[in-house]
Amino acid sequence: MSRLRDVNWTDALSYVVPVLAVLTLGLAWGRVLAPFVVVVVACLLAGAVLSAVHHAEVVAHRVGEPFGSLVLAVAVTVIEVALIVSMMLSAGGETSSLARDTVFAAVMITCNGIVGLSLLVATLRRRVAVFNAVGTGGALATVATLATMCLVLPTFTTTTPGPAFSPPQLAFAAVASLALYVLFVVTQTIRHRQAFLPITTEGEVIAVDEHAEPPSPRMTAGSLSLLLVALVAVVGLAKVESPAIETAVRAAGLPQSVVGVVIALLVLLPETIAAVRAAQRDRVQISLNLGFGSAMASIGLTIPTIAVASIWLGGHLLLGLGPMQIVLLALTVAVATLTVVPGRATLLQAGVHLVLFAAFLFLAISP
């Protein structure tokens, strides 16, 4: 009975917090916040993250996999793109590298942080994490292609000075990125859906969640609406907090790219929590769908949007990574490939990914 009360209390908070967070966002938007208000906004931001995870899981349970994994990934990425574009339009040339920094941070967070943490939880529980190598390998190949084409090639092109694409090159990268992302979604949800479903240790597909009845259509619609409200609150409050973050970064003498890393960490927190919860339920495939799917959506949706927004943006759009970031990306792809190919992972693979993630964070702070 006490458990039922806890669930009802949690559900009640998940409905109240997103609305309260959006109201606070409306009151705090465009204002200089006092230290106490910054703390309150941070608490509401954390509450909105937890609410987003709850409602995403409700929707995912209703629509089933692999559609459920797309819900949170696409929703968060769309709002992340809106945040990047709005900040670039408002600040002009000062944020010419913001898209690059945020997208690269998203790739490292998802492919090392989310994947590593999910494998850690799964291997501590079952010793060996089992997933479908065919579907996960296809997702990783798509992420590697998108990241190389959009974040590495601009460093080596010579049409324009600096690590930037020329307008025709940017247009090509945008169209190719969107086409690859759409092709992957079709593959994941229609053509080869079975390859992205959770499997047992014997390799049998787990098509449905047998532990609970799916929510009603009305409950699903309500959760979908509140998911969008919560995600708007997460990204909006993250932007409200960003001046305090930027001030702290400058005061600490840290590189400006750290701002993009912090924003990416905040925005991807719902997906991280959802992936860990899936790993706790022995649904490692869902965790990997969320991790690689989020990286893919971050590039495949951001670059086309930035390409369109560049019509109004002044100056060069810096997309090319530096040598250190390219090395980290190449090492991430190599390690992830060795993790994915066997279809099974142990605590060692989890540790390698988490060490890579720690290296990324450390080098972002101390390049």
What distinguishing features does this structure have?
two-stranded antiparallel ribbon; globular; A middle domain of Talin 1; 367 residues; mainly alpha
Describe this entry's structure for a reader.
- The chain is mainly α and 367 residues long.
- The chain has one domain: NCX, central ion-binding region (A middle domain of Talin 1, Up-down Bundle).
- 76% of the residues lie in helices and 1% in strands.
- The chain contains twelve helices and two strands; from the N terminus they run H-H-H-H-E-H-H-H-H-H-H-H-E-H.
- The protein has helices spanning 2-28, 35-63, 67-91, 98-126, 133-156, 167-191, 217-251, 257-267, 269-280, 284-309, 323-340, 347-365; strands at residues 129-130, 344-345.
- The chain has a two-stranded antiparallel ribbon with strand order 1-2.
- The longest helix is centred in the middle third of the chain and has 35 residues, at 217-251.
- It is globular and about 55 Å long.
- 48% of the residues are buried.
- Mean pLDDT is 83; it is low at 1-7.
